[in-house]
Amino acid sequence: MITNTPSECQALVLIVDDEPFIRKQLRLSLEREGYRIVEAQDGREALVVFQQLHPDIVLLDAIMPDIDGFECCTQLQSLEGGQHTPVLMITGLEDQESVDRAFAVGAIDYVTKPIHWPVLRQRVRRLIEQFQTQQKLEAANRELQRLVTIDGLTQIANRRRFEEYCIQEWQRMAREQLPLSLILCDVDFFKSYNDTYGHQAGDRCLQEIAKAIQNTIKRPADLAARYGGEEFAVILPATAAEGAIFLAETICSVVRTLAIPHRKSLVSSYVTLSIGVATEIPQPNSDFQTIIVVADRALYEAKTAGRDRVKP
Ligand code: GH3
Ligand code: MG
Ligand code: MG
Ligand code: MG
């Protein structure tokens, strides 16, 4: 008997065969390995069970009335999780055409009847193992992707993600000759905020501001990011100056009305932002950094003009 690891043992095997005797044989043989078993007597039932229970592997008979194994396998591919679940065809058909067809419709492996039990058990075990490893890898990749694009403190996009997106949208706007706007925000007197309330309170303040900015942007194409320590940026593709300034004013007032106390601020009793806005229709072969420079200059003007304000 093959010893399975605990996670393989919990694996759910869907057995699809129109012959009750074969289903029973398969069930008994695989239950002994510790798998959980669910049965379907035809292709139609298999598709329903698959959607309800998301098995880890499907053992699929080829010849069945109504929806046969080949058709069932084809339809499985289009169901949620269908492409990530191994299908092992079990059939009496040994001719080249049937074998080719099974692989063409998405089966991962092929076993012929009469079933050679030690081989079947090994195949099932290996396929489950392989696909569980693959799923773990994919989940780890997704998490990694999230970690490299999201700012750890504020959970909004980080500068890396922002710049990637800016390059992409800058090129798109250059092709379409549409305006692209950029908003750069900087927290006013944040050094003294930290000095007064402590670095942890400063962190919480940045989290609140990030959330407020994120909630203010509405269009799917707009992206808000933590651009630096206490700087936030928003890119607005296909947005003219007027719309961008309106949004910047909204962000400025939303943060003001968070009413986070800041007794050492020289312009308010609350935490405020200074905001620079820039708008350009990108020229072909130009660089998106040009608009950052313009927005940064506008931000500097907002600072020197008294802070807690927007400058285009
Ligand atoms: P100004 O109004 O001219 O922008 O003044 P300021 O004090 O905000 O400007 P300055 O750039 O001198 O200070 C930025 C401060 O932001 C200094 C730094 O300690 C703080 N800061 C940057 N990143 C973080 C962070 O992740 N957490 C906290 N708590 N503080 C941060
Ligand atoms: Mg059959
Ligand atoms: Mg700064
Ligand atoms: Mg600042």
UniProtKB/TrEMBL annotation:
Organism taxonomic ancestry: Bacteria, Bacillati, Cyanobacteriota, Cyanophyceae, Nostocales
SMART domains (alphabetical): GGDEF, REC
Source domain of life: Bacteria
Protein name, as recorded: PleD family two-component system response regulator
Listed GO biological process terms: cell adhesion involved in single-species biofilm formation; negative regulation of bacterial-type flagellum-dependent cell motility; phosphorelay signal transduction system
Keywords recorded for this protein, A-Z: Phosphoprotein
InterPro entries for this protein: CheY-like_superfamily, Diguanylate_Cyclase, GGDEF_dom, Nucleotide_cyclase, Rev_trsase/Diguanyl_cyclase, Sig_transdc_resp-reg_receiver
Ranges where the Response regulatory domain occurs: 12-128
GO MF assignments: diguanylate cyclase activity
One cellular component term from this protein's GO annotations in UniProt: plasma membrane
Modified residue annotations for 4-aspartylphosphate: D61
Pfam families named in the record: GGDEF (PF00990), Response_reg (PF00072)
Domain annotation GGDEF: ranges: 178-312
UniProt entry tagged with the keyword Nucleus: no
